Amino acid sequence: MFKKLCRASCTYVVVCWALVALCPALGYAQLDVRSAILMDMDTGQVLFEQNADTPIPPASLTKILSMYVIMDRIANKQFALDDMVKVSKTAANTGGSRMHLKAYERVSMDTLLMGMAVSSGNDASEALAEYVGGSQENFVRMMNDKARSVGMNSSFFANPHGLPAAGQVTTARDMLSLSYKYLSSFPDALRYHSTRFMKHNGVVSYNKNPLLGNYKGADGLKTGWVNASGYNLISTASQDNSRLLAVVLGAENTKTRAQEIHRLMEAGFMLKRNQVSSIPDALRFMPPRHFALNLDNTKRDAYATLAPEVLKQGKASAHKKNLKASKNRRHAQKAAKRSQAHKKSKKDTRQASLHRKNS
Question: Which residues are catalytic?
Answer without folding.
Answer: 60, 63, 120
